[in-house]
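Example 9 (inverse folding). The structure is encoded as follows.
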């Protein structure tokens, strides 16, 4: 059953007008769960083209190349973790050395998306039991590495707000072209506020027809309070190409 209503965002113009920040891209609805990652999609599919547009827009919206980028959402289940994985793949195709870091210590997803073991990971790095070289895992995709969450921590907020987190991110920014940080949902816990305050830029994922306007407004207020650099929004689960949100060529370029 559709959750679309007047208190949700249906078109990017509404979001830009109400929020005062640009919309940087659209991700189409993919009904087939096996095709939701860029690596599994056809070369000229709407998903691939949408991610290329997002990659290009990010290049122009930032005043300088971003060494770290946090991707967050107001509430759970808006698709931010899948977007992180897909954006990593799009950047890697552009020749960037990308590191994905799962900072959602309560409901991690990146190890599942990339088919990796959850441990060791970020928690092990922040608690001092492992070094960076011991927690970085190859993703199986060229130019992409991943730091999963690691052991479940009793104190996630304290770990993410620690000096060790700040210094580790600064170190990782020197080792990779782009560090993508998958955060927890912003309004659920304080964790995302801490992570976005460290990143050089932040994207806010909006589920089209799902995310309530008031929740995104609250998220932006908290991002401002954290002095985060909010670059823009990304509309997720947009209806197919016929909706006119993005251009998609035919699957066969000779057709």
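The amino acid assigned to each position is listed next.
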């Amino acid at each position: 059953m559709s959750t679309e209503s007047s208190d949700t965002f249906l078109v990017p113009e509404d979001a830009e007008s109400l929020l005062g920040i640009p919309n940087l891209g659209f991700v189409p609805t993919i009904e087939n769960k096996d095709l939701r990652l860029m690596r599994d999609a056809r070369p000229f599919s709407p998903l691939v083209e949408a991610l290329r547009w997002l990659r290009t827009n990010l290049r122009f919206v930032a005043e300088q190349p971003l060494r770290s980028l946090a991707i967050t959402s107001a509430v759970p289940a808006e698709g931010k973790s899948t977007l992180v994985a897909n954006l990593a793949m799009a950047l890697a195709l552009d020749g960037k050395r990308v590191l994905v870091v799962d900072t959602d210590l309560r409901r991690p997803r990146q190890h599942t998306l990339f088919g990796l073991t959850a441990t060791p990971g970020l928690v092990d790095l922040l608690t001092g039991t492992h070094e960076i070289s011991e927690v970085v895992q190859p993703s199986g995709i060229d130019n992409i590495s991943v730091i999963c969450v690691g052991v479940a921590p009793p104190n996630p907020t304290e770990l993410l707000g620690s000096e060790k987190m700040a210094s580790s991110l600064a170190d990782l920014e020197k080792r990779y072209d782009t560090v993508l940080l998958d955060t927890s949902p912003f309004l659920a816990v304080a964790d995302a506020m801490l992570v976005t305050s460290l990143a050089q830029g932040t994207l806010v994922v909006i589920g089209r027809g799902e995310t309530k306007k008031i929740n995104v407004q609250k998220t932006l207020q908290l991002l401002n309070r954290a002095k985060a650099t909010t670059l823009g929004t990304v509309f997720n689960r947009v209806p197919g190409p016929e909706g006119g949100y993005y251009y998609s060529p035919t699957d066969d370029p000779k057709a």
